[in-house]
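Weekly sync notes, structure subgroup
Attendees: PM, AL, DS (notes)

Item 1: joint prediction request from the bench team. They want all two components modeled as one assembly rather than separately. Inputs as received:
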Amino acid sequence: MPTQTTAEIAQAYREAKARRARRSAVLKHIFLIATSLIMIYPLVWMLASSLKPDNQIFGNLGLWPSQFQWQNYWEGWNALPVSFTTFFWNSTVVTVLSVIGNVISCSFAAYAFARLEFTGKTMWFALMMMTLMIPYHVVLIPQYILFLNLGWVDTYLPLIVPRFLAGDAFFIFLMVQFFRQLPRELDEAAMIDGCSPFKIYWAIIMPLSVPAMATAAIFSFIWTWEDFLGPLVYLNDMADYTVPLALRSFISSDGVSQYGPMFAMSILSIVPILLFFLIFQRLIIRGIAMSGLK
Amino acid sequence: MQKFLRKNLAGYAFLSPWLIGFFLLAIGPILASLYLSFTKYNVVRPPQWIGLDNYMYMVQFDQRFWKALQVTFTFVFVSVPLKLIFALGVAMALDKGIRAIGWYRALFYLPSILGGSIAVAILWRQLFNYDGVINSVLRLFGLDGPYWLSDPRYSLWTLIVLAMWQFGSPMLIFLAGLRAIPQELYEAAEIDAAGPVRKFFAITVPLLAPVIFFNLVLQMIEAFKSFSGAFIISGGSGAPLDSLLFFTVYLYNEAFSFLRMGYASALAWVLLVIIALFTAIAFWTSKYWVHYENERG
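Output from the run, pasted for the record:
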């Protein structure tokens, strides 16, 4: 093409490239929108079903209820011999105490691993990392026997006390990674000023580690709130049930004709998680991208 | 000397909650579980040493043990690759310059956050009911869907789909990994007229290998351990016809429904060994396909 100058060729190349980029962006958006609709549809369907009369739930793809059955929520709340007020209270107690326990004890351990020198540190750290891999099911039975002998079965102690003993190595690891990034000079200066290690932990490390603490607290909250196996093993009395156990009784008792109320309670059970997710979304997403938490 | 003592004192003081937990709730129970796996124990009477009987019985006579292994392996080896492929595909579509990326990320990640909840397991049971949403969709295309949950040929697939639905967390990790790949490499490849497929296999995959490996190991361990979904969807027993008898479900039933704590401990050890073995295999083979940036000479 003798009539084209180099500049024209470059221009044409740039235009072709921009056109291709635009086309691929459109295709990507179509793919992404379709995927996100599929992803979110089941949850929206559950929300819609919680407001429908039972006979409209099945064989029905539509989301808008012909009439809003708000009483599903009321009926679901009181459908079991014990009301959901109790279950939500129980879950709140267990979850709040677990979060406090996890954050305190894991940050203690992480501070020791990341900022203090002591004999045997490398060995303990390696052992801590190994516990990350052990499936909970291996320790479940002996832990159950231990708690049974302590008379702790049918109480919340087996669900809470381990949290105060830094049971979740994931959080220790997360915090170690964070603490290590903080400048060493801070500790050294404080040490010269005569600060004790506890003072350094409390007055310097903690305030600077709010993002790491918050990430651990949020995940700890979500996992404890959702936890099913722990309560299933340790709680037998319905008055002690947490929300997930109560939901399970819903389907195993006479859930046959109570789909609306069941979905209503399912929706309520995930409301705290959804709220946390909405509020702390950015933090959660950064936390997972950095650490590979669930 | 006194200073040395003081230094150690602080370290161990801060470590003490973890140390207590480690001995009482991790190492102690692991050893106890190993011991119990050689006994017959029903909680009421003291454990009775029976040597290797639990393991012998398991391997020689226990059909359900083999079934549980088969179900669990099928689940792990089908759901993990599918989930990772899907996660990578979506992560690549979400690359730089996509508008509203925050929204997409949040939407895709939401199911993972809700993944362990009983509400989602209950929801899944209804979606795959014969009159449920999945079959209604199929009916739109003139297809008559099966009884997903009561037909043992299909029931495991409902859980595989559930696992895939939760592709959000590996996706976020892929996304972070993709961000770290220098854009110049792609530009250089474009000048050499490399197509998208070529760019994917020559640049993306090798540079992402450490992240792929990380996701693979993590998701595999998670999949071996998964419990709640299978427990709820199978009504706690692994039904229909043990097609949802995940290893963890079997273990739970042996321990807490039938109080065969010794046998269940042996099962737990088998699970531990399987997970350790597969993690080790992943690490061994990784040196052939995972190359870390700082290793290259």
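Discussion: The mean pLDDT of chain A is 89.
Action: AL to compare against the crosslinking data before next sync.
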